[in-house]
Amino acid sequence: MKNAGIMLIFAFMLATASLNFSFAEESRMIRVSPSYEQRYLNSTFFVNITFSSPTPLLAMQCEIKYNPDILHAIEVYKGNAFEGWSGDIAPWLIEIDNENGVIKGLFAYSPQGVYEGVFARINFIGVAMGESNIELTNVIAGDENDIPVNIAIYNGSIEIVSYPWDVNMDGSIDVLDMIIIAQHWMETPESPNWYERADVNNDGIVNVLDLITVGQHFD
Ligand SMILES: [Ca+2]
Ligand SMILES: [Ca+2]
Question: Which residues lie at CB < 5 A from ion ligand 2?
Answer without folding.
Answer: 199, 201, 203, 210
